[in-house]
Amino acid sequence: MEKLLKDVKRIYEQFDASHDFQHIERVLQNAESILATEPDANKEIVRIAVLLHDVSDKKYSEDKEAENNLLHSLNLSADQKQHIKEIIESVSFNGGNEIPAKTIEAKIVRDADRLDAIGAVGIARTFAYGGAKGRKLYDDAEEVRLEMSEEEYRSKNTASVTHFYEKLLLLKDLMTTVKGKQMAEERHAFMETFLHQLKNEREGKA
């Protein structure tokens, strides 16, 4: 784990603040909170999947083999490596076209990652990513898409506030573990409060 931590940290240090190593540390923390309530889950598999889940992220990585290479370097069975790959494949939202999380480990990793996409940190990450990609803060003329392909989801450079309605506000109801659902409630409510305040300030009501 110590070597893997160093290897993945070098990769994540190349990404912007929305997907850097601090993101991984927070997801690990979320995963540990959920693991405490799921005694049957394989902790090692969960932790490794969290560390690797963004190393080959399509938004950043030019090295599409980074995930496979790091997995290959680990002293794990073929079944364990395949399990980790399946967990990582099920993490992404993909515009609502997500791959089902079939195991408790997959559910924990997905919930842990999505918890970092909502709440105060989620708000900060959304605007950090939007700034890195040159996105508008908001665009009232932009139509919110609730049904789209993965390609449509990734190809359109939508305003940051639009992203709340196309993804972030949907995540609370997509949590799969009891603890994940509990943790999502307060974070979801904070996003709603933020969007309400933002609207008031933009309209000169606050």
From TrEMBL:
Location of the HD/PDEase domain: 16-127
Coiled-coil regions listed in the entry: none
A Pfam family that the UniProt record links to this protein: HD
Cross-referenced InterPro entries: HD/PDEase_dom (IPR003607), HD_domain (IPR006674)
SMART domains: HDc
The organism's place on the tree of life at top rank: Bacteria
Name of the protein: HD domain-containing protein
Record lineage: Bacteria, Bacillati, Bacillota, Bacilli, Bacillales
